[in-house]
Amino acid sequence: MNIFWFIPTHGDSRYLGTTEGARVADYDYFRQVAIAADTAGYTGVLIPTGKSCEDPWVTASSLIGATRQLRFLVALRPGLMTPTLGARMAATFDRLSGGRCLVNLVTGGDVAELEADGLFLDHAERYEASSEFIHVWREILTRSHTGEAFSYEGKHIRVKDAKLLFPPVQKPHPPVYFGGSSPAAIDLAAEQTELFLTWGEPPAAVAEKVAAVRAAAAKHGRQVRFGIRLHVIVRETEAEAWADAERLISKVDDAAVEKAQAAFSKMDSVGQRRMVELRRGKGRTRADLEISPNLWAGVGLVRGGAGTALVGSAEQVAERIREYEALGLDSFVLSGYPHLEEARRTAELLFPVLGFKGNAAEGTAAKLSGPVGEIMANNIVPAAANDRLVSAG
């Protein structure tokens, strides 16, 4: 199992849909979140992409030296960069980080944003271009280990004698993650990516996607891994978790919801449409928004992309994760508001229940070893969770 966290380069807050409780989105804060995720033992972090975010490659690069084991899932954007440039960026990052680069192929689904960036392809054309892009990217990186050049002429991309002089650490190239829900996305994932990432839908819907990608991959003689992108609200008790879920959206008013949903409706992303459909026509109570046991669609009231959260005690959230794992998922990209505190809280409550050791098993914990807990009066060491302190009196 791999468990990732999230660097909130678009901002962070204790409440959704308001500036109340908001955090300054700057390097110091991103660094704090990255260090928290690294020392807690997360496999890696997802760096988001888009006009509302700081640039993912610059951000991720700035955090290499602040972390030890953490891997960085960073976006490749077909149409906004060339595959040769993307290959050099990924190889450089992989070398400078000691093999900690993962790439997230993002075709984009917000037409207005894409056009503002100079990309005027429709949905089908974007997937054609993405397929050509990642094919060329993979070939350039793969051939870099033997010094070969690569030429390609397609509908959207053409390169002649493309050659990468400095290969990545990982062979043949950093793994490619990719998410999408349309038939074109499933075909692309099956043919050219290592891991298919879905947003947090109910298990039955996820099972259908997994089956579709597996079947498509089999036609190419390939196997694809699977992961899911979710928010989490993990607490010691179920009651605490649901109270904090309600608190998270307590400042959101109807006007903010209507504005956000109107913006989502203009996107041509099938995945975003599926997120909207999960809560269409429903209210804002727990009964309305709990679309599957412990799966809550409240985040999607005003947030695009991943709009669902697992809410409950550590045991309940672990049980839901195990259900997804039983479907064949091995990677869980999590986040929570605010991201600094929730990175630690999630790890401390959830990891022991899952039996997840993550990067701590690879040396991070040993490198950062020190006293566990507060040393109390007379040098009394804190008891283990299953021990009992006995008073001398």
From TrEMBL:
State one Pfam family annotation: Bac_luciferase
Q: Which GO terms describe its molecular function?
A: alkanesulfonate monooxygenase activity
Query: Any keyword Flavoprotein?
Result: yes
Q: Tell whether 4Fe-4S is among the UniProt keywords.
A: no
Enzyme Commission number(s): 1.14.14.5
Reactions catalysed, as given in the entry: an alkanesulfonate + FMNH2 + O2 = an aldehyde + FMN + sulfite + H2O + 2 H(+)
Q: Which UniProt keywords apply?
A: Flavoprotein, FMN, Monooxygenase, Oxidoreductase
Give the record's GO biological process terms.
Answer: alkanesulfonate catabolic process
Question: Which CDD domains does this entry report, sorted A to Z?
Answer: Alkanesulfonate_monoxygenase
The main enzyme category here is oxidoreductase
Q: Which Gene3D superfamilies does this chain map to? A: Luciferase-like domain
**Limits of the Luciferase-like domain:** 1-330
PANTHER family referenced in this protein's UniProt entry, alphabetically: ALKANESULFONATE MONOOXYGENASE, ALKANESULFONATE MONOOXYGENASE-RELATED
HAMAP family in UniProt: Alkanesulf_monooxygen
Reported function: Catalyzes the desulfonation of aliphatic sulfonates.
The family note in this entry says:
Belongs to the SsuD family.
Name of the protein in its database record: Alkanesulfonate monooxygenase
